[in-house]
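Q: Sequence in, structure out?
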Amino acid sequence: MFSAYTTLFRTPGAMKFSLAALIGRMPVSMDSLALIFIVVAASDSYALAGALSATASIVVSIAMPYWARVSDRIGQRALLMRVVPIKLIG
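A: Exactly. Output:
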């Protein structure tokens, strides 16, 4: 099962590339969950939390192709160096 990953990570630079992506993209997977917890705690409404989470998911799905183009243009590292501090402050 892991032989494909072993082959992949033998490629020069693959580990650094994957580690940067893991660190930079980890918050993306937690945003919806955090949004739901915060809204439910503040308003006690799961309906509102679900609606806001769905809206955020739609906005992110629309924005991601643009972020991908920027990443292709300036590089993943350069993009993450700009975006990660903004996400941390937010």
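The chain has one domain: 3-89.
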